[in-house]
Amino acid sequence: MNKDILEGRGAVNLDVSASGRTVTALEKGLAGSAAIALKEGALKGVDFAAILRVAQGLLGSKSAPARQAESGAKTDFSELTATFVIKNGVAHNEDLKMTSPLVRVTGRGDINLPEATLDYTAKATVTEAAAGLGGKDLAQLAGVAVPVQLTGPLANPRYTIVLDSLAEDLAKGAIQREIERRMGSGSKPGGKPGSDPVGDVLRGLFGKPK
To answer: Counting C-beta atoms within 10 Å of the first and last residue's C-beta, which end of the chain has fewer, N or C?
Structure first.
């Protein structure tokens, strides 16, 4: 297929068929299924660690323009698994899982093999260890799945960080952590044991209800 997008050791299972007199015709007629399970390799074309650093810098922004991935970008992984259903040369995936000491990635979307393009939505999560090394700001993203839309050429895709969804997840995480802190202490600071920690947090965020 002349597509250099993955490296690693493991298993690749194919059950596909195609017909045509040219490579392009074969690619456009490709149909079937595929599954991959790789270890100690790299996904080429996108650097999710770099994307997370960009997301860190965009916290508080209202919009995020599409950005071009750097030439030669790749994401090293400890393990990667995915299955594909292929029709008319387009491989559709719903269950990508990729892990490394720095980042965890899940995803779903389409890879157009004849056009060598992709339309893919990934969620990248910085690990606690990586967040600790990245300082206070990156620690804000620890455990939060950063949504990223990937489009364009496989070798050098464009990416857009979906800030609305990221802001919502960050707010939910902050509320949950504060609720857990107050429930653990049994009351809000200066309050009486048995007070309502959930109500206290919500009133603190949104004001006292009328």
So the answer is: C
